[in-house]
Amino acid sequence: MLRTLVVALLLxxxxxxxxxxxxxxxxxxVAARAEREPQRLGQQVRPEAVRLLPAxxxxxxxAPPATRCLxxxxxxxxxxxxxxxxxxxxxxxxxxxxxxxxxSTDTPGAWMIxxxxxxxxEAQVKKITELNRLGIAFEAMKAASSVDETxxxxxxxxxxxxxxxxxxxxxxxxxxxxxxxxxxxxxTHRLRFDxxxxxxxxxxxxxxxxxxxxxxxxxxxx
Length: 222
What we know:
By secondary structure, the protein is an alpha+beta fold.
């Protein structure tokens, strides 16, 4: 009886050892080494194509190329036409024609109501006395197109506003007033590329726009 028990234990140990070595996988249907690395390596597809990259290299490979915002200007109406012609004439720049935009800014002019020259004082004493009597404020100003100062009754952002004010002064007895342009309205233009890649930025910065040194530089505002 004892001999039989010893033989059974020996056979059980031998069977367990054979199973742990994978010799009985096909017999028992349970893989003893299913979670071990050799088994996983055998299931890989093209393991020789797998390579490890350092973290900075891996991030750089997946990140999109850095872009820059570039603009040129400001240009007046004549200069912007010349700049756009220079862009069209450059093969490298003209290939980007769908990516640039023209930004225009209107700066209003200024107009004032004048009632004559402020000098010589002798010629204006009567007018100044009249303005003081009517309680109308005034100041000596000089228009951009004139070397002489005038007595100004006010400055306005639009010609229409100046014309309305002139009519009101006439109704109060000031009949010698007239409208003078202090500064003319101005429209300026900028050419902008919002997202130029490094090669595109180098092309634009090296491009001559035939506009007195106004070339592409970093955008003043995003």
